[in-house]
Structure formats: structure tokens, C-alpha cells
Amino acid sequence: MPLLLDLHPDAYPLEGYRRRQLLEWVFEHGAPSFAAMSNLPASLRTELEGQYALNPFIKTETFESSDGSVKYLFTLADHRQMEAVYMPYLDRKTICVSTMVGCPAKCSFCATGAMGFGRNLSPGEVVGQILAVSWHQNFSPRELRNLVFMGMGEPLLNYDHTIMAARLLLHPQALGMSKRRVTLSTVGLAKGIRRLAAEDDLGLKLAISLHAPDEETRQQIIPTGQANSITEIMDAAREYQGVTGRRVTFEYAMLSGVNDHLWQADLLAELLRGLVSHVNLIPMNPWEGSNFTETPESQIQAFYDRLELRGVPVSVRRSRGRDAGAACGQLALKQPGAVSGVVGVVAGALGV
């Protein structure tokens, strides 16, 4: 049975005000079923239920963190599983969504990469994460302030479905989000970044998981680095900025003794010269089976100070949901504290 959420709003069934009612139930009220759409005739609800699936998930589990973040474990119709993270702040609601089951990028510091690749998610399975989270958290999907494609998977390797999902986020009859509030994180696929730059009127915020400024280190920790050199990535980033006018964010997971040397901070500053950018230093979050340890706070501060001295806008991003297994690099398809032989799943190209 086709998933209703895979459709563009203009292709939704029904006509006129009935279509508007259907769209409002889905994207404004986040209705979990056709039966909940109380102002549609019962016969019409039954007809829709016989033609479309509304909820892409057959099971939803939640794991709460002491900081208010919530990890969502979704079971899809084919019984595969993936995760999303809800992060509430005083002035905004943020959801980190996945674009794949697992991830083929296989970054060595990333639990998702250690798990491997399952399959791509459809546009409706991506958007469905937002609707499910908003329903469970008891707010309208249109109250969502920020959306990040930083969960499981590499968005640019599921390009068409990710872009379709992004357009649903922005469509005025769907979620009506501002493109300034939507961030796509990639491990650094130069061709995909250039393709993204060419998307008419999309202009999402771009985050690139660089994680090392030198080829030797990057290729050791990111296998895709062998096909996408740092030079190619930086050229693509400059092209993206030239077309969209957007500042580019660079994600940098701090791995003790690997990429946290001060000479690497100097080299990173040189790479970013002339580019309007921001660096997020991300203290590594532990996960079962990792061969890496987090950089000590004193060295993170020294790295930060060196970048700042060189004129690079920089911040240290403290991940939310660490105690619930929901922080950057921890998404693992298992309950916090559980013992498992499966290493797990991480936030996409290293995000959240």
C-alpha cells in the first residue's frame, strides 16, 4: 500500500477544501491515523484507509535523557529500524532525522558506520519522523523550529529522497518551514554538494563533516576521503556558498591523539581562508566498541584558542542526550545501558 507522506501536496487525493482538510490533518495536527480526522466523512476516511498508509512506522519507542532530549526508535513496515532525536530548547524545538537505515560511509569513529548500511528511507519515512515526534511530544508539526538531516545515513547518497523530503518541509501546504532553519550534514561528497548547490530556490544550510584538515588523517578515519579529496570538498563548499550565499559549517569530532594537534588547527584555518564559515568542535561521545577516546578538555580549549587566534569562527558543540544514547555518534538501535554485540548506529555524517 503506498505511503501518503511520499506524495507531493499537490498530488494528495481529494479535491478543493477536502484536500486542504487532509493536508491540515497531516501537517498541522499530525494526525496518527485517518480515523482521527474527525471532520472528514466516515466513508471518506474508510476509503483513504483502504488506499494509503498514513503512518510509516509499526512501532515507536522512546528513550528520555536527563537534559530533556528524547531518542526515538522507529520500526518500519519491513521491520527494519532507525532513529531520530528530539531536542527541546527554551526558544525552539529541534528534530534530528535519519535518511537511511544505517550508513554506508563507514567513518571509523561513528557507530552507525560500524553497523553498516540497510536501505534508503523514502521521503515519507523521513518526514514521518517529524510527524511522529510532534505527535508524541504533543505539539503541532508546524511548531518545529529547526530540522537537521544529521541522523543515520549520508543524505547525499539518498539524494532524490532527501531533496523530496526537504521540499515537503518547505512547502507552504506541508510544514512551511524556513530554509534557514533546515540543515543538511554530509560527510563531504563533492559531487553531491555541487548538485545541491544547483537546486533552484532550495538553499539549505550546509554542514560538512571534515574531521581532519590533512589527507592522511582524514583517509584513515573516513573511507570516503579516498574518493573525495579535501581540495575537492573545499572547492565544492566555495561553489555552494557562491551560489546560495550561505555560510558553511564544518563539523570536527575531537579524537584524542588523532586530529586534535595544534598544527592541524593551523592547517584547518588555512583551508578556510576566504570562506564564510563556522567550525563546530564536537567532543567525542563514547559508544560500545569504539577504538577512539575523546580529546581532553584542555586540548579542546587549546585547539579552539588556536582557531580563534587565526580568525576562524568556532564553537564547541556539547551534544544533547548522551545518557540516553542519543548524542552525536551514539545512535545505536538499542536501549541505553543494554549489552549487545551490535556496535550500533551514529548520527549520519556525524551530526546532531
Entry summary:
Helix content is 31%, strand content 18%. It is α/β, with parallel strands linked by helices. The C terminus is likely disordered.
Characteristic key phrases:
alpha/beta, ten-stranded mixed sheet, two-stranded antiparallel ribbon
Q: What report would you give on this structure?
A:
Helix content is about 30%, strand content about 20%. By secondary structure, the protein is of the alpha/beta class. The C terminus is likely disordered. The chain starts with 15 loop residues before the first helix and ends in a 36-residue tail after the last strand.
Question: How would you summarize the topology of this molecule?
Answer:
Blueprint: H1 16-28, H2 42-51, E1 57-64, E2 70-76, E3 81-88, E4 93-96, E5 100-102, H3 111-115, E6 117-120, H4 123-137, E7 146-149, H5 159-170, E8 182-186, H6 190-197, E9 205-209, H7 215-221, H8 230-244, E10 248-254, H9 262-271, E11 277-283, H10 297-309, E12 314-316
Parallel strand pairs: 4-7, 7-8, 8-9, 9-10, 10-11, 11-12
Antiparallel strand pairs: 1-2, 2-3, 3-4, 5-6
Helix pairs in contact: 4-5, 6-8, 9-10
* Helix/strand class: alpha/beta
Helical segment tally? 10
Number of strands: 12
Question: What is the helical fraction, as a range of percent?
Answer: 25-40%
The separation of the N and C termini measures 33 Å
What is the overall shape?
elongated
Beta-strand proportion: 15-25%
Q: What is the string of SSEs from the N terminus onward?
A: HHEEEEEHEHEHEHEHHEHEHE
- Show unreliable segments: 321-327, 337-352
> What is the CA-based Rg, rounded?
20 Å
Mean pLDDT: 89
Main sheet strand line-up: 1-2-3-4-7-8-9-10-11-12
- Can you summarize the main beta sheet? 10 strands, mixed
